[in-house]
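Repro:
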Amino acid sequence: MTSIIHEQKVLSLKNACVEFMFAYQQRNVEKMLSFCDPDGTVFFEPLGKDGQGKIYELGKAIWTGLIESFPNLDNTLDAAAATDENTVQCQVIIRGTQSKDFADIPNEGQSFDSDHIFIFRLSSGNKIEHIHINWNHDDFKKQLAIGN
């Protein structure tokens, strides 16, 4: 019986993360945030200290900026695996074509296709309380440069 309960908990954790990624694919930041704890934190690792903050502040700002700058932003969730009873790691490919300047990246009308790792930590209430995101930022910027 405990094995079934454990499997259901793991499935519930994965579902919350898959739903988050589906909302991201729909470019619906408010829906993404609905799966998150309002006090939750985020770490966009390639951005260093500037990439650390609150999900509802920094996360919302970055995702909104990405969606505005890449109106066809899309993702494919390749894998989702529970690594412990509160953590799910997702392997995701994110792609899009730039139509506006984004952060320090001028708009050259180029596209990117980039592997990302999202590590979600969830609360006992199944809300996302921390997201750690990693990708090759140099390659991301290189793909968006003119002449690529």
